[in-house]
Amino acid sequence: MAALPLEPTDHPYYRNTKVTSLSVTDVRYPTSLFADGSDAMHTDPDYSCAYVVLQTDHPDGHEGHGLTFTLGKGTNVVIAAVNALEHLVVDRNVHGIFANFAAFYRTISSESQIRWIGPEKGALHLATAAVLNALWDLWAKLEGKPLWKLIVDLQPEQIISAIDFRYIRDALTENEALTILREGQTGKQDRVREMEKNGYPAYSTSCGWLGYESDLLRKKLRTFIRAGWTRFKVKVGGSLDDDIRRLTIVREEIGYDKLLMVDANQKWDVPEAISWMQQLARFKPLWIEEPTSPDDVLGHAAVAKALAPLGIGVATGEQCANRVIFKQLLQASAISYCQIDTCRLGSINEILAVLLMACKFGVPVCPHAGGVGLCELAQHMAFIDYIVISKSLDNRVLEYVEHLHEHFAAPVTMKEQNYVPPTAPGYLVGMLPSSIAKYQFPNGPVWKDLMQHKAKPV
Amino acid sequence: MAALPLEPTDHPYYRNTKVTSLSVTDVRYPTSLFADGSDAMHTDPDYSCAYVVLQTDHPDGHEGHGLTFTLGKGTNVVIAAVNALEHLVVDRNVHGIFANFAAFYRTISSESQIRWIGPEKGALHLATAAVLNALWDLWAKLEGKPLWKLIVDLQPEQIISAIDFRYIRDALTENEALTILREGQTGKQDRVREMEKNGYPAYSTSCGWLGYESDLLRKKLRTFIRAGWTRFKVKVGGSLDDDIRRLTIVREEIGYDKLLMVDANQKWDVPEAISWMQQLARFKPLWIEEPTSPDDVLGHAAVAKALAPLGIGVATGEQCANRVIFKQLLQASAISYCQIDTCRLGSINEILAVLLMACKFGVPVCPHAGGVGLCELAQHMAFIDYIVISKSLDNRVLEYVEHLHEHFAAPVTMKEQNYVPPTAPGYLVGMLPSSIAKYQFPNGPVWKDLMQHKAKPV
What we know:
Two copies of one chain form a homodimer.
Chain A: H1 12-16, E1 19-28, E2 48-56, E3 63-70, H2 75-89, H3 94-99, H4 101-109, H5 122-143, H6 147-153, H7 156-160, H8 174-183, H9 188-198, E4 200-208, H10 214-226, E5 231-235, H11 240-254, E6 259-263, H12 270-280, E7 287-289, H13 297-307, E8 313-316, H14 323-331, E9 337-338, H15 347-361, H16 374-389, E10 398-400, E11 413-415, E12 418-420, H17 433-439, H18 445-453
Parallel strand pairs in A: 4-5, 4-10, 5-6, 6-7, 7-8, 8-9
Antiparallel strand pairs in A: 1-2, 2-3, 4-12, 11-12
Helix pairs in contact in A: 2-5, 6-16, 8-15, 9-16, 10-11, 12-13, 14-15
């Protein structure tokens, strides 16, 4: 099927809008000072991002803002990768990009020389995500809509034209995708209203970081239960004894009527994952997240098969490189929960492919969030999935972490532990310039101070 | 099994040797001007590398030299990644590294913050390869041996202690690996002598680039046949008609008594790969290389199953990210030929894991070479595999491309289309300082000239 041209708008300004420049900034928050975000593999993350701004010649001064999430060191490598992609986007007419977004995705994700250092994975694909996130933000702003609304208002054929189907046609053809999206049009407005009224169900990861002491863990859980939370995720994989001690505390505090998920962050070999989780099965976790290498499709399938009789599902995705890995996880029945990441995959273009494959294979999508900016981005995926793709909330929960939202101009809004659809135009909706200035690495005042006075390793 | 400490030497200088600095240089050769190396996905490669030098405080001035191969643009991203790893290697005692090389591999491949931008894939893993290649070069120089000889002289327990078995134990345990290596000790000296006498069989890719016109193709083939070559690889995947035209020429020139392999460089979807190769089956290729995405284990398995009745094997590896992907390709019977790459995998540490898994699964290893420096590096892998691991030459051929060897201080030596074991100490054996200076990007004279006078896009 040939790509179907989009006609996003007839406004003459829009048709003539060009990207005039790309700039990218290294922004890091020293979260490792407080063990926020610590897990079995990432013991001292400084939640960070490569923050991209695309300027345009639009008379209203519209800019596209996008980011990709990182853990501190290495952010500068992603920034080098963003700069390597700059020549592919600057001077481009944005209508030309949006009208055949799949072709542009191919241009940027498979540039003849640059693709060698990926392809479609690692630092290069994180950079691709940041640039494409900024373009989708720009498109949504030009339309004056939040990103999720831009997508759910598109015609199925328009959505298809944004997806590069290369490497996935053995699992999902263009026509199959079109059928799913056409079925998603039925009752669409009802689901929009439902989301606006009730929001999308969330779970909290804020209580369960591996670095938290018992007292802090208990105190945090109580605070969250009082606030009404009923779904919790806890890190595991440090040591089996410690996991048992901590999960005992968690179940003591939350009881067995609330949802518990556990997350090993790739700590284990396949046989180790199975035996370790057999020891934790009595805590009745809904899923084990990232039991082993994110590249190991067959390994996840083996873990899933072994744990199914115990009622434990397998979840993964935040470090799964691209749609080809997700395709195989679905083909091999390796996951019961599909955890797309808005900064790891090649933005909406590639995420739409995964949402559609997950729908075809009947696997619920539970996006990865947290970090910095991931909640702001991931909520759009949940709304899109529910409103025009899966049309289901069964077994679906969206991750929520409470920290770092204060750095965003339009942070996520929660209503009784549910995400409320944002109304501001755009995707990320922008970080506060004051935050960017303060936390810019290495020259922002926060980092200058840390490096001078506290001997923080950098 | 705990890692077994190495005792590489008792020389006091060696015990005290420290890495004192790391430097890395962007070296690019403008090969795209001549369509050398062009294929279905990489239409205009400038064969390039990130070239790493580790200086030490050794009184004899020993340095470790390593590189990772790239295609031009994006090399600077890999250089940023090398620099991000610098703090993990500088000031380290090299004996401490070599004595438990698996632990050091883990340190550099899974640093708590940096791993997010991989893990073990893409620009970061290419950088890891460059740094580790330089360390192995240093070790071999300290021992005064070529790299292959350093390895084949190690005890099986010492080889094991260099391998990170995380994520592969479901396919190969430490004890299984040890058994293979112990069996590899039998007849070892005979195989060393055999290699020194006859060399390792090679095939040529120099005739079959996609960008070559018919006349040039025919002329090149005749030259190579006159020189005694009997094994050829040709690029495919541009268009079916053109492939048929070119393969017709190839078989006209080489006949059906010589080996022909074809290489699609990831051009196809899975169903497309199968139907396209069914059309090319009459040319009797030994293998189809990279039929689809390097991440698609299940896709390669499907292609392998469909093409087996036609006598065509599947080969892949030059862009397979790490040992976890190779593990699955072997587990799923997805490849008949295992094409490790010395700059894509995490150097000897990770390559040894793949060689051992391939041996267990009975799949021949045919290393990827060509590019710049890859022949110089890959030959060591072939010798190691034959002498102490697989002990077999059946169905094994090592890629050879004739260009760019002149930039190396000790380029590969061929004897009747076979690789002759190098005798100079080290792994890569170093690029000529004059070449580095001339082709350094963007300030070397070659690039300054191209940018000023020929408007070469950069």
